[in-house]
Write a structure and sequence with these properties.
By secondary structure, this protein is an alpha/beta fold. The chain is built from eleven helices and 14 strands.
Length: about 280
């Protein structure tokens, strides 16, 4: 049997993790000199409260080797194999940590660390496809081959309410020209080749910007794979989330519209009020 593992940047809801039998291993959130397990010991709202109080943005660190080894111990001595999905290698050393953990346990021949070249539910889209293939009885090799093909078709983007978190975190190139006091700019951030980069610039209230962003993807959405689409946010007003959901629902196209809230790591880098629509491009 092939088991699916992921780090906590996948931003899947607890319901989806249970439904697809996925094991999630947390990264770390660093506030001052204290570390917390993402989604276990701290959540986004506590992170935002700390950031507001200290006028600073949190730091994050990779999955620990101890936690990675502990999660993979169930593969040692069993007939099971594992595929581990991680955040882009260009953003974190987490993929390397899982590879080292498999080597330390002597199970590297039974574990594939799938470098997603993505983040958030861009990873989630790959994971759910892998979980479905595993349920169908596909081998680890067959699943990995199909996921490698699928990686280039994942479309991950989002718009942010504030540039402060991304700019201070230094994870998104090209923001410096926008961050110099142009408070009404809300860039569309796109993940390409495992890195984030700003593309189109929107202006106005974040509520209007989010709807404009989704409407701009109309044709792309109608050429996506139909199985599922994600609305992932870092703490948006419920009315805004509902308006995006209703827009996608009225397309009468997707089999499943999934709403998830970003976890601590993604929220630490993007800040509150961020929302993305993520999907897989169709053939």
């Amino acid at each position: 049997m092939v088991k699916i593992f992921a780090d906590s940047t996948c931003d899947l809801s607890e319901e989806l993790v249970k439904r697809y039998d996925i094991t999630v291993v947390p990264l770390h959130i660093v506030l001052d000199d204290k570390e917390y397990l993402d989604g276990v010991e701290i959540g986004p709202d506590e992170i935002y409260a700390w950031a507001d109080e200290h006028k600073a943005t949190p730091k994050t660190s990779a999955v620990s080797i101890e936690d990675a080894m502990k999660s993979l111990e169930c593969i040692d001595g069993s007939s099971d194999e594992a595929i581990v999905f991680t955040i882009s290698e260009k953003m974190s050393v987490t993929p390397s940590v899982f590879r080292m953990a498999a080597q330390e346990l002597g199970i590297e021949d039974k574990v594939t660390v799938m470098e997603s070249a993505n983040l958030s539910t861009g990873i989630g889209l790959l994971m759910l496809e892998a979980a479905c293939l595993a349920k169908e009885g596909k081998s680890r090799k067959e699943i990995c081959e199909q996921i490698e093909v699928l990686k280039k078709d994942v479309r991950s983007s989002f718009v942010v309410d504030t540039l402060t978190y991304l700019y201070r975190g230094g994870r998104c190139s090209g923001l410096s020209a926008m961050a110099g006091g142009v408070l009404k700019i809300h860039p569309k951030i796109v993940v390409r080749d495992g890195q984030m980069a700003p593309t189109k610039k929107y202006r106005g209230s974040i509520e209007k910007v989010i709807i404009d962003y989704v409407e701009d993807m109309h044709d792309e959405l109608l050429h996506a794979r139909k199985e599922r689409v994600f609305i992932t946010h870092s703490g948006c007003d419920r009315r805004v989330i509902d308006s995006v959901y209703n827009y996608l629902k009225e397309l009468d196209y997707f089999d499943e519209i999934l709403i998830t809230r970003a976890g601590g790591v993604i929220s630490s880098h993007c800040g509150p009020g961020t929302l993305g629509v993520l999907f897989v491009q169709g053939a």
